[in-house]
Automatic annotation (TrEMBL):
Keyword DNA-binding annotated: yes
Gene Ontology MF term list: DNA binding
Keywords per UniProt: DNA-binding
InterPro entries given in the database record: DUF2063
Record carries keyword DNA-binding: yes
Protein name: DNA-binding domain-containing protein
Organism superkingdom: Bacteria
Origin species: Bradyrhizobium ottawaense
Pfam families noted in UniProt: DUF2063
Length: 267
């Protein structure tokens, strides 16, 4: 039999059951009977907790070092708070925790500890680098094909796995200590943000800290600014006479690290 909305009773019950798990809507409780031992809200709570726990397990897989940093109890508490604030909207659990850094940055009490959002952001970007698409890698021999006159017009395409991340705290030092099974340093807010470049080299996600100058050059190069203009911008940071040499040095490092997937003469 169908109800007036055109939805079968079974479909309606399924929808109410799902809504009850995802949004804490208790409408479905009217469809559930108490058992001899437990009330219906307790019985349904088992499903709610199991659903949330499955999502927290997925978060633990994506953020293993954040889990290690917080410990089981605090991570689970944080994870269930995130599940409640961000119901899953994607069939692939890999993407469920994408909003975790922003959640930790804005939701109390976690926002009072900025190292948490930074640590989550670093793990997220490393995970994204691992999952990023493949792409051809520019090598040094490719650069030999361009005449010296063409270099000012060269434009560069970052590898699909490459991303930039600025951290307000010493989260990268915390990450490295946890990764090496060492005691992490006390969390600290930095006077200047740590400017990280994150990418996948072969099959291994990597990151390193950039100087302010190199970070600027990377950001502008990623936006299509040609090499000649990049060198002019470098001249405003330090010795103008050495700007071209510094730019070439940064470029050499990017190429040998597999950070570029294309180089061409701009229009």
């Amino acid at each position: 039999m169908s109800n007036p909305s055109g939805m079968s009773d079974f479909a309606r019950q399924q929808a109410e059951f799902q809504r009850g798990i995802l949004t804490d809507d208790d409408t479905v409780l009217s469809e559930i009977l108490d058992s001899p031992r437990e009330k219906r809200d307790t019985l349904f709570g088992v499903y709610r907790y199991a659903y949330g726990s499955r999502l927290v397990d997925a978060m633990r897989n994506d953020h293993g070092l954040l889990h290690l940093y917080l410990g089981d109890e605090m991570f689970d508490e944080m994870g269930h708070a995130y599940v409640k604030a961000h119901p899953s909207e994607h069939p692939n659990l890999r993407w469920f925790s994408q909003g975790l850094p922003d959640f930790l940055k804005s939701a109390e009490p976690y926002s009072n500890h900025p190292v948490l959002s930074d640590l989550a952001a670093l793990e997220k970007n490393l995970n994204d680098a691992f999952d990023a698409a493949e792409g051809p890698v520019v090598d040094l021999s490719a650069m030999a094909g361009f005449s010296p006159e063409a270099w000012p017009d060269l434009e560069f395409v970052p590898h699909p796995s490459a991303s930039r991340l600025d951290l307000a705290t010493n989260a990268s030092a915390v990450w490295l200590a946890l990764k090496n099974e060492e005691t992490p340093p006390d969390a600290a807010v930095l006077e200047e943000p740590a400017r990280l470049l994150i990418w996948r080299q072969d099959t291994t996600p990597m990151f390193r800290e950039l100087s302010t100058e190199e970070a600027m050059m990377w950001d502008e190069a990623a936006n299509g600014v040609p090499f000649g203009v990049l060198c002019e911008m470098l001249a405003t940071y330090d010795d103008p006479d050495g700007a071209a040499a510094r730019g070439a040095g940064y470029l050499h490092g990017w190429i040998t690290s597999g950070l570029l997937t294309g180089v061409s003469i701009g229009a």
